[in-house]
C-alpha cells in the first residue's frame, strides 16, 4: 500500500524545467563544436543583413523576386537566432536549464520559421514559373500586392497551424525525466519524456509535416516540372540555358532544405545506433540554410553580384 501511495505521489509530480544536455554521446567534448557553430551563426547573420542592404539600396532589385528573397533572409535570421544563442550558452556556460514555457515557446517559433521558409520557397517557385512560362502576364500577376498577400497568407498559415504543437506538448505530464538529449526543444524530443500517452502529438506532427511542407514540396515540384517542359520547347539553346540558370540557385537550396527534412524525419522515427546523427542534423538544418541561402543567390545571380559590387564600392570610397 505504501509503495502504491508513493508511486501515486511521484506520478503527480510535474518537473519545473528541462535540462538540454546537448549532443548525445559527446558531452565531454561537445564544447569544441561551439566555434564552428558560432561562425556559422555569424555568417548567417552577416550574409543575410548584407542581402537586405543590397536589395534596399539597389533600385533595380526592387522587384517581387528580390522582395521574396529579402523576406527569406529575415526568416533565416529569425530561425538561426531562435536556437543558436541557447546552444552556445549550453556549450560555453553550461546553461542547460530551460523552463517549460520557454521550451514550448522555442518549439513553436522553430516550427513557425521552418514552415515560413518552406512557404517562401513555394512563393519563389511560383514567381519563376510565371516568369518563364507566362512571361507576358508576369507584370500583371506577380505584383507588389501579390507579394504582400502571399507573405501574409504564409505567415498566418504557419502561426495558426503550429499552435497545437506546443499546446499539445504542454498538456503532457512530465513527472520524472527532465533531461533532453538535444540542444533545442524539439517536439518529439520533449514529448518523449512525458509519463502519459503522446500518440496525438506524433500524429499531429506527422499531419503538419505532410499538409504544410508536403504540399509545398509537391507544388514546387509541379512548378519546376512545368518550367522544364516549357524550357524544352524553346528552339534556342541559349534561351533555354538562360531560363534554367535563373532557377539553379533556387533548386540547390530547395534540394538541400527538403532532403535534410526527410533525413531528419527518417532518423527520428528509426532506432538510431548513433543518436547524435538526428540531433546534429536538426541543429545544422536550422543554421546551415540561413548561412547558405544568401551565398548561393549572390554567386548565381548576376543582379545581386552587381548590387554587391556597388555596395562594397560605395563603402570603400566612404572610408
UniProtKB/TrEMBL annotation:
Residues covered by the G-protein coupled receptors family 1 profile domain: 47-297
Topological type in the membrane: Multi-pass membrane protein
Gene3D superfamilies found in the cross-reference section: Rhodopsin 7-helix transmembrane proteins
GO MF, one example: olfactory receptor activity
GO cellular component: plasma membrane
Alphabetical UniProt keywords: G-protein coupled receptor, Membrane, Olfaction, Receptor, Sensory transduction, Transducer, Transmembrane, Transmembrane helix
Name assigned to this protein: Putative olfactory receptor 56B2
GO biological process, one term: cellular response to lipid
Segments passing through the bilayer: 38-56, 68-93, 105-126, 207-228, 249-270
CDD domains linked to this entry: 7tmA_OR56-like
Subcellular location: Membrane
Domain of life: Eukaryota
InterPro entries per UniProt: GPCR_Rhodpsn, GPCR_Rhodpsn_7TM, Olfact_rcpt, OR51/52/56-like
Reported function: Putative odorant or sperm cell receptor.
Classification via PROSITE patterns: G_PROTEIN_RECEP_F1_2 (PS50262)
Pfam families given in the database record: 7tm_4
Amino acid at each position: 500500500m505504501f509503495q502504491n501511495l508513493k508511486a501515486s505521489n511521484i506520478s503527480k509530480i510535474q518537473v519545473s524545467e528541462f535540462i538540454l544536455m546537448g549532443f548525445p554521446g559527446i558531452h565531454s567534448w561537445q564544447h569544441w563544436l561551439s566555434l564552428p557553430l558560432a561562425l556559422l551563426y555569424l555568417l548567417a547573420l552577416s550574409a543575410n543583413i548584407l542581402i537586405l542592404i543590397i536589395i534596399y539600396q539597389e533600385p533595380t532589385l526592387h522587384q517581387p523576386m528580390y522582395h521574396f528573397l529579402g523576406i527569406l533572409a529575415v526568416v533565416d535570421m529569425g530561425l538561426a537566432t531562435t536556437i543558436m544563442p541557447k546552444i552556445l550558452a549550453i556549450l560555453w556556460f553550461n546553461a542547460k536549464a530551460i523552463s517549460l514555457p520557454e521550451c514550448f515557446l522555442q518549439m513553436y517559433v522553430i516550427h513557425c520559421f521552418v514552415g515560413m521558409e518552406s512557404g517562401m520557397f513555394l512563393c519563389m517557385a511560383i514567381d519563376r514559373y510565371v516568369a518563364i512560362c507566362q512571361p507576358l502576364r508576369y507584370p500583371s500577376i506577380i505584383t507588389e500586392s501579390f507579394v504582400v498577400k502571399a507573405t501574409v497568407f504564409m505567415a498566418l498559415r504557419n502561426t495558426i497551424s503550429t499552435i497545437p504543437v506546443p499546446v499539445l506538448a504542454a498538456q503532457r505530464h512530465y513527472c520524472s525525466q527532465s533531461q533532453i538529449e538535444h540542444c533545442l526543444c524539439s517536439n518529439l524530443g520533449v514529448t518523449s519524456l512525458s509519463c502519459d500517452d503522446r500518440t496525438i502529438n506524433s500524429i499531429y506532427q506527422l499531419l503538419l509535416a505532410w499538409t504544410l511542407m508536403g504540399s509545398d514540396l509537391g507544388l514546387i515540384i509541379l512548378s519546376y516540372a512545368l518550367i522544364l517542359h516549357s524550357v524544352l520547347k524553346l528552339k534556342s539553346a541559349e534561351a533555354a540555358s538562360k531560363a534554367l540558370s535563373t532557377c539553379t540557385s533556387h533548386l540547390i537550396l530547395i534540394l538541400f532544405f527538403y532532403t535534410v527534412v526527410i533525413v531528419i524525419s527518417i532518423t527520428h522515427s528509426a532506432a538510431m545506433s548513433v543518436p547524435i546523427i538526428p540531433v546534429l542534423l536538426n541543429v545544422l538544418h536550422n543554421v546551415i540554410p540561413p548561412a547558405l541561402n544568401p551565398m548561393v543567390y549572390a554567386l548565381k545571380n548576376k543582379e545581386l553580384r552587381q548590387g554587391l559590387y556597388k555596395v562594397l564600392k560605395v563603402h570603400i570610397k566612404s572610408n
